[in-house]
Design brief:
Layout: H1 3-16, H2 18-25, H3 29-35, E1 49-51, E2 54-60, E3 66-71, E4 83-88, E5 105-108, H4 110-121
Antiparallel strand pairs: 1-2, 2-3, 3-4, 4-5
Length: 124
């Protein structure tokens, strides 16, 4: 990719955010992370462990926030193979006091989980 285009994409990420830039340039979030050498964690970075007949993974970010991602028969969307996500505070406890959500988020695809992980990483 040409250097000027890459610089324009990076500038756009700074002003409009990674998800909006992805949509504007028609590139996947993961492709933008790779092209621009960004340090966002995505769905693929979650270390899932067995949990209640399903899986659970927790991931923490440099800004002190994190996420718990779960898929079980009892989680929202789990019976459909989808994921539930909760935002974690700096103590690793659920928090409902962020602009992202005041509850857990359910029925999420891996791509949607990644989009929420990016939003959590961008919290100040």
């Amino acid at each position: 990719m040409k250097q000027k285009t890459l610089e324009a994409i990076k500038s756009n990420i700074e002003t409009d955010g990674l998800i909006n830039t992805s949509e504007q340039f028609g590139l996947s979030v993961n492709k933008l992370i790779e092209l621009c050498d960004l340090h966002y964690k995505t769905f693929e970075d979650i270390d899932f462990q067995p949990h209640w007949g399903g899986i659970i993974g927790k991931i923490m970010f440099e800004n002190g926030y994190g996420a718990s991602v779960i898929r079980t028969e009892q989680s929202y969307g789990g019976s459909r193979g989808l994921y539930e996500l909760a935002v974690l505070d700096n103590d690793g406890k659920l928090t409902y006091d962020t602009p992202i959500t005041g509850d857990v988020l359910g029925f999420l695809s891996p791509k949607e989980v990644t989009n929420y992980l990016i939003q959590i990483q961008d919290l100040k």
